[in-house]
Amino acid sequence: MEKFESRVIVSGVGLSETGRGLDRTGLDLALDAALAAIGDAGLGPGDIDGIASLPFGDRPPEELIDALGLQIDWLGAPSSGAQLGVIISAAMAIAAGLCRHVLIYRSVQRLGGLLGSASGTLPAPEGPWEWHVPFHEYSAVNLCAMQARRHMHQYGTTKEQLGWVAMTCRRHAALNDKAVIRSPLSMRDYLDAPMISDPLGRLDCDLPIDAAVGLVLSSSAFVADCPNPPVRIEAVGCANHGPTGWETRLDFPTMAARDAAAQMWSRTDLGPADVDVAEVYDGFTILTLSWLEALGFCAEGEAGPFVDGGARIQLGGELPLNTYGGQLSAGRLHGLWLFHEAVLQLRGDAGARQVPGASVAITSAGGISKCGCVLLTR
Amino acid sequence: MPEPARIVPSLDGLSRAFWTGGSRGELMLSHCQACQYWIHPPKPLCPRCHERDLRWEPTSGVATLFSYTVNFKAWNPKVPVPYVLGIVELPEQAGLRLTTNIVNCSVDDIEIGMRLRVNFEQHGEVFVPLFEPAASVERLRTESAG
Ligand SMILES: [Zn+2]
Questions:
Q1: CB contact B145 to A (< 8 Å)
Q2: Range A102-128 average pLDDT
Q3: Domain-embedded: residue B28
Q4: Is A145 helix (H, G, I), strand (E, B) or coil?
Q5: What is the mean pLDDT of the segment spanning A154-177?
Q6: Which residues in chain A are contacts of B3 at CB distance < 8 A?
Q7: Residue B83 falls within a domain, yes or no?
């Protein structure tokens, strides 16, 4: 099959300073990440002719365009594939010949909850919020908690099994000096963490941080000039199946991740057994379990036993998971730090946390009715 | 106990009948007259058969608990915690679900699959449909009868 994916490589990645309460603006951090990624690709700002970012709390692309003096032909936004949609749409634009080098970035400053709810002064809820806010449901954590509760009811999944995702991420974060929380985490610590929305506690939720990540995607014609081992996009998958109201998806707690994964696997000869390292969305621990099932690493309902004890998913195991610490411990960059890590692993640049010989990596992001995944190779 | 501060919707949209049916004690949902599909949240047409012949009709007002969470974080400082959010499924149709609060029930007694019935909380013109154990209502009736 002639795929658009084969016309694109990942040429550069970069990360800003990371932390909590950094005394720096989002734009400043985004510029750090952008310049790091552009430089990593062996390019200068004058080479960038496309740009894409995520909405919701981000610095808009226009600010980076002005600050860096970019001449942008293609300006993108996530179309399909949840947070990884920026990568998928940028790859399509490059393959279509609209641009050669696309800068993708994400900057955040400790976002969380429905903006305005803390003051109790939200306006009358509109759109999908009409069916949640009147019942004091202000955050995705409440819905994911009900997803977890239902998963437990249907499949016997336990709180401790959710804990193995958090503990494994923390263990990996200790090997990453950019991870924001690196202290050891025991099961006792995990179980004792304050409950946010039962069964999800504080350590089931990803970590709001100040940081920015940058990526550069280039035309595959750039392979010969790319200073890094080029990382290839093997296949993408996206799905927006089911009603927007998460709880009204008929097969809840199953997510559209299953549909996105089916599309991705249909575009490659590789399969789950070929994957060396998995960077799987962990906005909440339950989403990681759901993605592991959707991507075919275990059967539906079997993700709890799959992660139990941590042996399979830790470095050295059969499927090292979120090797940089994930959003749970390294910090929340809405899927794009996961992608950044997959690229480092495939290049062999992951240092103390390198998966030896990694040649196939999977990344995924999103949940419930909006999901995307990208399979990478070197 | 003081009534929790609820942020209620405006009644200007498609959903007016849903939020006001409680004045008659009725949980109203939009119902397709062409294919008999129950539609929630409401839409200008039926998402199954795409006909526009819809009518607001009362449901039985009973449900089973599909999933739930006990929320401990004070997202809104005016709302006391903890409180219980639930997704309930109505018997009228497989997968016909709403998010609501489970009230008049100790947290220890909540379990998936329990039988519930609607209990409206009035805020001016808006009647917010909450759910409580069907058994507790039956018990109360028995007690008052005795
Ligand atoms: Zn119909």
A1: no
A2: 71
A3: yes
A4: helix
A5: 98
A6: none
A7: yes
pLDDT of residue A122: 67
pLDDT (average), residues A326-338: 95
Q: How far is the CA of B88 from the centre of ligand 1 (A)?
A: 22
CA of B146 to the centre of ligand 1 (A): 46
Two structure tokens written together for A295: 């991507």
* ipTM given for this complex: 0.92
B97 in any annotated domain: yes
Instruction: Give chain A positions within 8 Å (CB) of B76.
Output: 117-118, 120, 122, 136, 138
Cβ partners under 8 Å of residue A97, min gap 6: none
| Residue B3 domain flag | no
How many domains, chain B?
Answer: 1
Nearest to B67 among A118, A134, A150 (CB): A150
- Which residue segments constitute the domains of chain A, with CATH numbers given? 4-111+209-225 (3.40.47.10), 138-206+231-378 (3.40.47.10)
3 state SS of A175:
coil
Below-50 pLDDT ranges, chain B? 1-2, 145-146
pTM of this structure: 0.94
Which residue segment(s) compose the domain that B99 sits in?
A: 16-145
> Is residue A20 packed enough to be buried (19+ CB in 10 Å), middle (13-18) or exposed (0-12)?
middle
Dihedrals phi, psi of A317, to nearest 5 degrees: -85, -175
Question: How much is the pLDDT for B146?
Answer: 40
